[in-house]
Specification:
Elements (H helix, E strand, L loop, with lengths): L23 H36 L4 H45 L8 H8 L3 H9 E8 L5 E8 L1
Antiparallel strand pairs: 1-2
Helix pairs in contact: 1-2
Length: 158
Amino acid sequence: MKMELPSDPFAGWPPVIDSAVVPYVVKLRDLVLTLLMWGVMLVILATEIDAALDAVEVLLGRSDAQINAELAEFFEKLKPLMGVIALLVIGLSAATVRSKRRRLDALSATQPEPLEGTVLAELAGLSLDELEIVRTHRVAVVHQGDDKKLSAIRGQKL
């Protein structure tokens, strides 16, 4: 007997975790943090943008001797940026190595036995029917009531 395999076994992956209602304060916080990060990026790059504009001015209508002198000054202005770039690359490399090591450790660790449905439902604060909704749907809207109890409202099938 031949078993039919799906054409794309990961079509429903990753599951989308979303909230039914996002409070206004959370949206405002996200907007403020995003604008703050863009502002920090502009402050960091302000000197470099200014130096790049100066370089364009240097190249317009100058002799080779003047250009060489101005470019030496331009590259002096870029040294701090190169230091920041080097630190960011080193930090990213260290974080990548740490992440890869943690992933390999997690993959090589022995996996625990899966929990029974009733135990898992109790730990999640859901009924067995609601747990089944969460398990079989790609998008499941989970509501937390005033009593802090979770309930799965609806979902979109995988």
